[in-house]
Amino acid sequence: MQSTNEIDVKIRNYEKNDEIKELEIYNSMITKNDPEAHQYTVEEMKYRYENKNFSSEQTKFLTDISGNIVGYCAVDIYPNGDAYLEYPFIKAEYRSDESMKKLFTEVLTFAKRKSATIRSEAYSLKYGFIHEFFEEFGYKSKNEFVNMILKLEDINFVVPDYISLGMSEDDVPAVIKFMKKFPNQTTTGITEENLRKRFQDNELASNKTFLIKKDGELRGAIGATKVESDETKESGSLNFFMLNLDDPDASEIRKFQILALVPFFKENKLTKYRISAYKSSAGYPIFQEIGFENDSESVQYVLT
Question: Which of 140, 166, 181 is the C-terminal boundary of a domain?
Answer without folding.
Answer: 140
